[in-house]
Amino acid sequence: MKTLIKAFKWFGIALALLLIGFVLFVFMRAERTYEAPYPEIVASSDSLVIARGRDLFYGPAHCSGCHAPADQLERLEAGEEVLPSGGEDFDLPIGIIHSPNITPDVDTGIGSFTDGELARALRYGVKRNGQALMDFMPFYDLSEEDLTAVISFLRSVPPVYNVRPENEWNFLGNMVRALGMIKPMGDAEVPPTPPADSTADYGHYIAESIANCRGCHTKRDMMTGGWIGPDYAGQAVFEIEDGSGDEKYIVTPNLTPDQGTGRMVNWTQEAFITRFRTGMTIDESVMPWGQFSRMTDMELAALYKFFQSLEPVIAEDPIPVGVQTLALGE
User: Fold this and answer.
1) Looking at residue 330, what is its pLDDT?
2) Dist. CA 305–CA 23, nearest whole Å
């Protein structure tokens, strides 16, 4: 009996030491930094370059949706160009992620950043201090011209003094950072950018490298961010909190041309463009309709052709029967 008690005692001590060691590892490694080169991007003062950056920022790249103050989102959805002084706060299982002020204010914005530091953040997902950014801005494959345009536009907006809080990581957040689950995503292998035209190839560039359609219209693990479903087959689930206490979810639709489950399989190009011009029809929608409605007919035609060119995929409903869901895109 004494031998058994002694064994349990040493087991408990060993387990406690392992736990203490793991906690120390988490807090020592959570602030880990990464190496990434600085792209040779130089902001331009050319009005056409800045105009292209503005179109991307307030349009298909929908940067303004996260970086505009939360109390001005209605103005943004109405088509106004709200200054990106920071505002969106993402309350996630790993902590609270605060979108920063990206106006050129020297003290609270990006006024003291170099063009290379901004380009590195967008191309590689690495912050100024070397830490990895959350994968909220998958602009790793933006063309050199479009990356230059976005940075040039940011340099041109009026500076706004607005102090934003640092990200608030809980222990789970620090753990996933320590284990390298939040890491740089860009690899600098930027594929050739097709000419801007109403082609499926250019639609692919918009969907993958600018608008991040895949990010919401592909099922993914919300803890790790990893893809767990076929590309563009939808079925990503967003929980709705409306104060009723009932379980309600938004399920993103299947964009592939499957005859049974594809949302747009019978849409014409004209109907597709009209839907984007209509804007938001479901209040709970997480799709930035106001910003996407700013796309040109050429861009929307290219997107339509790309989605119609996809291999059809049958999408299975991920929500149990009896739970209320709201499909996007109605």
Assistant:
1) 43
2) 51
Helix axes 297-309, 269-278, angle to 10 degrees: 120
User: In angstroms, rounded to a whole number, what is the distance separating the alpha carbons of residues 293 and 279?
Assistant: 6
**Average pLDDT estimate for 37-63:** 96
pLDDT digits (tens, 9 = 90+) for 238-294: 877 766 666 677 888 899 999 988 999 999 999 999 999 988 887 778 888 989 999
pTM (global) more than 0.90: no
Cβ-based burial of 252 (10 A; exposed 0-12, middle 13-18, buried ≥19): buried
Dihedral pair phi/psi, residue 250, rounded to 5°: -105, 130
Between strands 95-98 and 168-169, the pairing is antiparallel
Report pLDDT digits (tens) over 154-200: 999 999 999 999 999 999 998 989 888 888 887 778 888 999 999 99
Q: Rounded CA gap, 298 and 203, in Å? A: 9
* Per-position b or e across 8-39, b if 16+ CB within 10 A of its CB: eeeeeeeeeeeeeeeeeebeeebeeeeebeeb
Give the 3-state DSSP-derived string for the chain, with helices as H, strands as E and coil as C: CHHHHHHHHHHHHHHHHHHHHHHHHHHHHCCCCCCCCCCCCCCCCCHHHHHHHHHHHHCCCCCHHHHCCHHHHHHHHCCCCCCCCCCCEEEECCEEEECCCCCCCCCCCCCCCCHHHHHHHHHHCECCCCCECCCCCCCCCCCHHHHHHHHHHHHHCCCCCCCCCCCEECHHHHHHHHCCCCCCCCCCCCCCCCCCCCCHHHHHHHHHHHCCHHHHHECECCCCCCECCCCCCECCEEECCCCCCCCEEEECCECCCCCCCECCCCCCHHHHHHHHHHCCCCCCCCCCHHHHCCCCHHHHHHHHHHHHHCCCCCCCCCCCCCCEEEECCC
